[in-house]
Amino acid sequence: MTPLDVATVPDLLRLLAVPVFGLAAVRDVRTRRISSSLWIPLALLGGVLLLWDALVARAAGPAVWQSEFLVPAAISLGFVVPFAYLCWWFGAFGGADGKALLVLALLFPTTPQYVLGSWTIPVAASPVGAFSFVILTNAVVVALAIPIALAVRNVAAGRLTRLAFVGRPVPWERVPMAHGKLLSAPSEDGGGGLDLDALRMYLRWRGLTLARLREQPDRFRDPATLPDEPNPPTDGAVADGPVGDAGPALEDLVRDGGDRSSEYDDPWGAEAFLEDIEGTAYGTSPAELRAGLETLVTRDRIWISPGMPFLVPLFLGLVAALTYGDVLLGPLL
C-alpha cells in the first residue's frame, strides 16, 4: 500500500499540523505565551493546499467543484475566519486561539479522508461539510465539558460551593505560578476577578514576593512604601522567572504604623501601578487589584479559574474530528 492509497497528498500534508497544534496547546497551558511565528508556516501550507484542492476539484467537474469544494470552502473562509476575528476582537479568545482557528480554516476547509485497512476516517460525516467548522463545534463541546469535570472533581472532594463549576482552590503559595483569575474576595465566595498575569506584573513592579506581602499587609497597603524607581513589570508571564526578590530590608521600605488602609487615597498603590505601566494590565482596574490583594493576604487557600486556554479544546477538537468526525451532529445522522 502506498501513501496515495491511504489519502491524497494534500490530506497527508494536513496531518503535519496535528503535532504542531499539540505542542502549542502544551506550551499554552504552561506559559500562556505562543509566538505568532508558529502559525506563519501553517498558514502558508494551508494556502498552498487550498489552491491545490481548488485545482483538483475544478478539474473533476462542476458537481465536485460546487458541492465538495466551493460550498465548504466558502463556509470555512466566510464564517469561521470572521468568527475567529470577532471572538478575538471582543475578548472571547486570546490572540493565539484566534490565530489557531484562522489557520485551521485555511488548512481544513473540506473534509479529509484517510484509509486505515478496512476503516475510513473520519467515521461520522457532517452535514455542514466545512471541516474547520466541525473542528470548532467539537472544541466547543470539549470546552463545555470542562466545567462539568471541574464540578465532579470539587464535589468528590467535598467542596460544595457555587464556584465548583468555574474554579479550583489552590494554596496561596502556588498562586504566583498559576494561570487564570482569582475567584475569591475576602468577604464572599466570589468576585475578585484579578488576572494572575496582572498580579505578577504588580509584584515585579514593586520588587516583592507574595510571601513578603503577606508578612506585613498593613504596611504594604500604604502607598508610601512604593519604590522610587519601580522595576520592569514584564508582561506577567510565569516564564519570566520568580516574582519579586529578597529586596532591601523591610524596615528600609516601610514606616511604622498599624492598619490605616481607610486613610489612604490609593491603598496598595494600585492606581500608581496602573498609571506607571504601559498598557492596561489585562484590563485590571484599581478596585480589582485591591480586592485581589486583600484576598491573597487574608486567605490560605484561594479559588482560581482553571485558566484553560481555548487552544486545548481546539487541539482536542481537531483530533476528534480527524478520527471520529462531527461529535455534535455525527451521532444523530
UniProtKB/TrEMBL annotation:
The keyword Nucleotidyltransferase does not apply. It is a multi-pass membrane protein. Its main location: membrane. Residues 235-245 have a biased composition (Low complexity). One of its GO terms (molecular function) is aspartic-type endopeptidase activity. The chain crosses the membrane at residues 38-57, 69-88, 100-122, 128-152, 302-324. Residues 219-245 are annotated as: Disordered. Keywords: Cell membrane, Membrane, Transmembrane, Transmembrane helix. It is found in: Cell membrane. GO terms for cellular component: plasma membrane. InterPro entries: Preflagellin_Peptidase, Preflagellin_peptidase_C, Prepilin_IV_endopep_pep. Residues 289-327 form the Preflagellin peptidase C-terminal domain. Residues 18-142 form the Prepilin type IV endopeptidase peptidase domain. This is Peptidase A24A prepilin type IV. It comes from Natronococcus amylolyticus DSM 10524.
